[in-house]
Amino acid sequence: MVTAQRRVESAQAVPISISSVSGKALESSNFQSVTDLQYLVPGVQYDPTNGSAFQIRGVGSTSFDFSNAKSVSLVVDDVVMDGQRENGLTGLSDIQQVDVLMGPQGTLFGKNATSGVIAITTAKPVLDEWSGKVAVSYGEREDHNLNALANIPLGDKAALRVSAFQQGQEGYGRYTTLRQNLGTFREDGYRAKLLFKPFDGLEAVYAFDREHHWDNTIRTAVSGAPPAVTALQIANGVTPGPKNADNADSSRGMIETTSLGHSLRVQWSAPYGTLTSITAYRETSYDNDTPADLVPTTQFAYIPYNSGRLETSKFSQELRWASPSGGTFEYLGGLFYNRLAADQTQLQWATLGAPLVSPTGARLTNFYALTGAVGVPGNATLFRARNTTTAAFGQLKFNLTSKLSLAVSARYTADRNGQSQDFITIDPLPITGVNATFTATSPPPFLSYGQVKGDNVSYRIAAQYKLTPDAMLYATYSTGYKPAGVAFVGNKYDPYKAETVESYEAGVKSELFGRRLRLNFDVFNSDFTDFQTTILTYIPGSVIAQLVIGNAGGLRTRGAETSLAWKATDAITLTGAVTYADSHFTDYVYNATTNYTGTRLTNAPRWSAQAGLAYDDTLWRGVRVRGSLDYAYRSTTWTVVGQPAYSEVPGYGLLNGRLSLTPPGRDIEFGLYGRNLLNTYYSTGYQQYGALGLLHYTSLNARRTVGVFARFAF
Q1: What pLDDT sits at residue 417?
Q2: DSSP letter, residue 701
Q3: Distances from the Cα of 657 to the Cαs of 7, 30, 673, 708, in angstroms?
Q4: DSSP-derived 3-state class of residue 164
Q5: SS3 string of 524-537?
């Protein structure tokens, strides 16, 4: 059951390509983060670089620009997680299900999403029930996960559900000079939900959650550094290469994120319709310290001080009114408001090769302020962004016959996005240990503030026809929209245009052989105009390349998706899914000498697939045996626009497994788990970084992890 059309329906009855993952399937996968959905749902990718974002069907954009909206909207319990660097859900604890809606979702889901929606539903409190669960796992490289939940009745009209988790793993790489692991992550968080149901028809759920993430997964060297720098790396125990996960820097990089939020969902059901209100407030803090030197700074330094501090807050309010289901005529209407504020301080203080200590022992006292402008006081940059969305939406569905129906939905959206750039002075003494002076490197700002306004009407037409009670054909035409924004590129005010998309989709959903086999198939074509994308380029007057956001004239993604689930026996279930998505620029002339037309979008495999086997049966003396194997595959991708050879990530697959036993009459389960059992290596992103040459990012999932687990429920 899903709420893809904002009312509870069977996924097989909705004319949208949907992939659903149950909470049980998430638990069996042994994955730990919402970003790992890319290994469970073909057609979903996650790019951890350049702003971090999801892609669906090969389409999405990553950007550090704070006025840039997400192509894939992440929605948790009906709340849009639109904050920059806000994934909304760090750990996958106490999840009811995850629904991935493919293609433009520009009418019914909060903010417009031109590529799709990932809707996560967490478990709701249950009235009159005492229950709980404690689960723990431990594996290689101190891989661990501890989570617990409790459902507590509060009389006969209220209930409280509390869940918490703590997880992490030591990195595979090493800081060779610091003698510390590199690539480590640690996460913890909790969620509390209070349900109040004073009488039938009225229900209110207040929720509070807080998540914390820390990692030191940073860029490591591949090739292309000056010979002297490469020699210093080797002398300090690092061998650059395509599988290198080590770093000889004398200071540790790290990323730390804390997010929290409140939401209140009130639903009133009456014989003539249902009124739903969702009010939410969220905050996120993101701290980023990523020095870029590769070797001890007493020997060579490039950008020894590189830090960002981001604070975001958002408020949203949504109201929906839905008619009862099942009549000849069904309708839904609503209003939506969202205001997102972001403030970031960024400092980049470079030496561009000079070590921090001279051969005579003198400390370096002058730095290049890459975040300073010529002729303007300040050694750091302060960005402020304010993005406001107001919308009205609705859907009319006509059940023309018992087999044929037609739905028309539309959304009017008005956006106002503004961003300012100021230069501030941060005391260098606590950071550098010296009273440093600075030389600005960037040209003076053209404008310090910009704002763009715009509105749009996006709509969707969907027809569906029941061939049999268990088989349905559907066809849709839909449009989508991302608002225009304001960027500051090389201290130059640079507005970019809104992105729009037209999409066609047709498919069949079926259940066969007494509903033991579910088989779905669809084809799609989406054409984007003024697609918002980023490219690494050298800004006039700047000393290193910067990521620039702008518009490509056109982008197209087309392909097909199929999925099946087969209950082969009462004990064995087989699943599989394949997505083919050809996403490429149809019009992208970056400048007079650079034409990317015909090249593929970054991080966009043509082929992605998933296959799974689950076993669940009671064997000797009442012992319950559960086991699962799942395999996820994606074909070759490139991580830099234009498909340069150095950014190619060859196709790869990950095999995961789990086996457990439950004694008869007991509420305890214990067993073994394994991620990436074949120990398949892959990189997650490449980057040319000035004189440091080619760098890359790696993932913990690119190494085999095997461990044990136990779970107790009551």
Answers
A1: 93
A2: G
A3: 35, 8, 6, 12
A4: strand
A5: EEEEEEEEEEEEEE
Residues whose CB falls within 8 Å of the CB of residue 9, separated by 6 or more in sequence, listed in order: 1, 2, 3, 325
Burial class (CB within 10 angstroms; exposed 0-12, middle 13-18, buried 19+) of 644: middle
Q: pLDDT tens digits, residue range 384-396?
A: 999 999 999 999 9
Helices (H), 223-379: 227-235
pLDDT digits (tens, 9 = 90+) for 178-197: 999 999 999 999 999 999 99
Q: Is 125 exposed, middle or buried (0-12, 13-18, 19+ CB in 10 A)?
A: buried
CA distance 395 to 461: 10
Q: What is the largest CA-CA distance in the chain?
A: 89
Count of other CB atoms within 10 angstroms of residue 217: 22
- The arithmetic mean of pLDDT across residues 45-52, rounded, is 71
Q: pTM to 2 decimals?
A: 0.91
Predicted local distance difference test score (pLDDT) of residue 4: 57
Residues 606, 583: Cα–Cα separation, whole Å: 8
**Whole-number Å distance between alpha carbons of 95 and 200:** 26
Compute how many other C-beta atoms are within 10 angstroms of the C-beta atom of residue 160: 15
Q: How many angstroms separate the CA atoms of 120 and 80, rounded?
A: 10
Residue type for position 506: A
Long-range interactions of 356-362: CB distance < 8 A, separation 24+: 356/297, 356/298, 356/301, 356/304, 357/297, 357/298
Helix (H) or strand (E) holding 432: helix 429-432
- 358-363: long-range contacts, CB 8 A cutoff, minimum separation 24: 363/433, 363/434
| DSSP codes, 470-526 | TEEEEEEEEEEEE--EEEEETTEEEEE--EEEEEEEEEEEEEETTTTEEEEEEEEEE
Give the span between the Cα atoms of 144 and 163, in whole angstroms. 17
DSSP state of 9: B
pLDDT recorded at residue 545: 62
| 636, 647 contact by CB (below 8 A) | no
Tell me the pLDDT of the chain averaged across its residues. 89
**257: nearest Cα among 299, 212, 302, 218:** 212
- Give the per-residue SS3 of 311-323: EEEEEEEEEEEEC
Q: Token digits for 393? A: 């939406």
